[in-house]
From TrEMBL:
Keywords: ATP-binding, Kinase, Membrane, Nucleotide-binding, Phosphoprotein, Transferase, Transmembrane, Transmembrane helix, Two-component regulatory system. Residues 8-153 form the DUF7134 domain. The keyword Transmembrane applies. This is histidine kinase. InterPro entries: DUF7134, HATPase_C_sf, HATPase_dom, Sensor_HK_TwoCompSys, Sig_transdc_His_kin_sub3_dim/P. It comes from Kribbella deserti.
Length: 394
C-alpha cells in the first residue's frame, strides 16, 4: 500500500455524478460571473471545468484550479461562485491523492486564505479580518479533514480486503499442500504393500516351480501362500486407493485415527516372510510400551521394507534378524542379514524403499542408517524417538 486511493471511475454512476457536478457548477459559475467584467467567466470555467477529472487526476486538477485562483488574485477579481471549485479539488486530492500531495494541498489552501483576506478585506478592521481569516481557514481545513478521513477509511477497508484475500490464498495453499502430503503418504504406503507382497509371491513362485515335481505338497503350500499374500495385498491397496477418490469420498478428518499396522503386527509379518522361505529371528529387548500410531507404523514399515529387500537381494540360504529395542528415550529397530545384498545395494540408485524409510523416520523425528555390514550382509538401523516432533501428523 502506498497510501493512494485508486483514482478511477469505478462505475458509470461515478462518471455520471462527476459529469453532473462539473457541468452544473460550471454552468452556475458562468451565470453568476456574467455580471463581472473581463476574465470572470474564463476564471470560473478554469476552476470548475477540470472537476470532471478530479478522481483520475487529482493533483493536476488541483494545480489547474489553484493556478486559476492565483490569476484571479492577480487580476483583482472579487470572490465568486467559481471559487467553490477550490474546495472541491482540495477534497478530491485529500481523498484520491497520496499523503504528501494531500498535505501540500492543505498548505496551498491555507496560503490562499491569507492571500484572499489580504486582498479582499484590506479595508476592514482587524476584528473582521481575523474573523474572516478564521472562518476561511476553518472551512479549508474542514473540507481537507473530511477528505482525509475518507481516504484513511478507504485505505483501511482496502487493507482489510487485501488481508482477507491473502488469508484465503494461504488457506488454499495449505489445503493443496495437505492434499499433496496425503497423496505422498498414500503412495509410500502403496509402494510398501506392493513391493513386500510381490517379493513374497515371487519367492514362493520360484520355490513352488522348483518343488512342483519332487514335492507336490510343498508346491501346493507355496501356491496357497501366493494366493493369501496376493489377496491381502490387494485388499490393503484397495483401501489406500479409495482414499484417492476425491469425488466420491468425504473429506478426510485429520484428527480421526486411521487403522494402520504397528509393532503388534510384526510377528504376523515375520511369520508370512518365514512362510516365503526366509529364516528370520525376531527379538524384542527392553520393556515394551505403548507407541504413538505414527511411530508404530514407521517401525512396521521399516521392518517390512528391510525384509522385502532381503527377499529380493540376499539370495538363497540367507538368515535375517529383526531386533526391537525399547530404550529410555527411543525405539531402535535393527534389520540385518548375512546374504549378498550388499553387492546389490552398491548401485548409485538408492531405490524408493530406502528413500521411503528415511522419509518416514524423518517425519517421526528419527534417523535411518543402511549399508553393508563389516562381516558381510546388509544392515538397517532406525532410531525413532518416542516424542514426536511438533506438528508431526499421520
Amino acid at each position: 500500500m502506498t497510501g493512494i486511493v485508486e483514482a478511477r471511475w469505478t462505475s458509470r454512476r461515478d462518471m455520471a455524478f462527476d459529469l453532473v457536478l462539473a457541468g452544473g457548477l460550471t454552468f452556475f459559475g458562468v451565470i453568476f460571473s456574467m455580471a463581472q467584467a473581463g476574465l470572470a467567466g474564463v476564471i470560473s470555467l478554469g476552476m470548475l471545468g477540470p472537476l470532471l477529472f478530479r478522481r483520475t487526476h487529482p493533483a493536476q486538477v488541483f494545480a489547474i484550479c489553484s493556478g486559476t485562483a492565483v490569476l484571479q488574485w492577480l487580476a483583482g477579481i472579487d470572490l465568486m461562485f467559481g471559487n467553490v471549485g477550490l474546495l472541491v479539488t482540495l477534497y478530491a486530492i485529500a481523498v484520491y491523492g497520496n499523503v504528501k500531495q494531500s498535505r501540500l494541498a492543505l498548505g496551498v489552501g491555507m496560503c490562499g486564505v491569507l492571500m484572499a483576506v489580504s486582498r479582499y478585506y484590506t479595508e476592514s478592521d482587524w476584528r473582521q479580518q481575523f474573523t474572516m481569516l478564521f472562518a476561511f481557514g476553518a472551512l479549508v481545513f474542514g473540507v481537507w479533514a473530511i477528505g482525509e478521513r475518507r481516504r484513511t477509511r478507504a485505505l483501511y477497508v482496502a487493507q482489510l480486503e487485501e488481508r482477507a484475500a491473502q488469508l484465503e490464498r494461504d488457506r488454499d495453499r495449505e489445503s493443496k499442500l495437505a492434499v499433496s502430503n496425503e497423496r505422498t503418504r498414500i503412495a509410500r504406503e502403496i509402494h510398501d504393500v506392493v513391493a513386500h507382497g510381490l517379493s513374497i509371491m515371487i519367492v514362493q513362485a520360484d520355490g513352488g516351480l522348483y518343488a512342483a515335481d519332487a514335492n507336490p505338497d510343498q508346491a501346493k503350500k507355496a501356491l496357497a501362500t501366493i494366493g493369501d499374500t496376493g489377496r491381502a495385498s490387494l485388499t490393503e491397496m484397495r483401501k489406500m486407493l479409495g482414499l484417492l477418490k476425491q469425488d466420491s469420498q468425504p473429506e478426510l478428518d485429520p484428527d480421526q485415527p486411521r487403522p494402520q499396522p504397528g509393532v503388534s503386527q510384526l510377528p504376523e509379518l515375520i511369520e508370512n516372510v518365514r512362510n516365503a522361505g526366509l529364516t528370520v529371528d525376531y527379538q524384542v529387548r527392553g520393556t515394551p510400551r505403548d507407541l504413538p500410531a505414527l511411530l508404530g507404523l514407521t517401525a512396521y514399515r521399516i521392518v517390512q521394507e528391510g525384509l522385502t529387500n532381503t527377499l529380493k537381494h540376499a539370495g538363497p540360504g540367507a538368515h535375517t534378524s529383526v531386533d526391537l529395542e525399547y530404550g529410555r528415550e527411543m525405539l531402535t529397530v535393527v534389520v540385518t542379514d548375512d546374504g549378498r545384498g550388499a553387492a546389490a545395494a552398491s548401485s548409485n540408485d538408492p531405490g524408493h524403499g530406502l528413500v521411503g524409510m528415511r522419509q518416514r523416520a524423518s517425519i517421526s523425528g528419527g534417523t535411518v542408517n543402511a549399508g553393508p555390514r563389516a562381516g558381510g550382509g546388509y544392515e538397517v538401523i532406525a532410531r525413532l524417538p518416542y516424542d514426536l516432533p511438533t506438528g508431526g501428523t499421520q
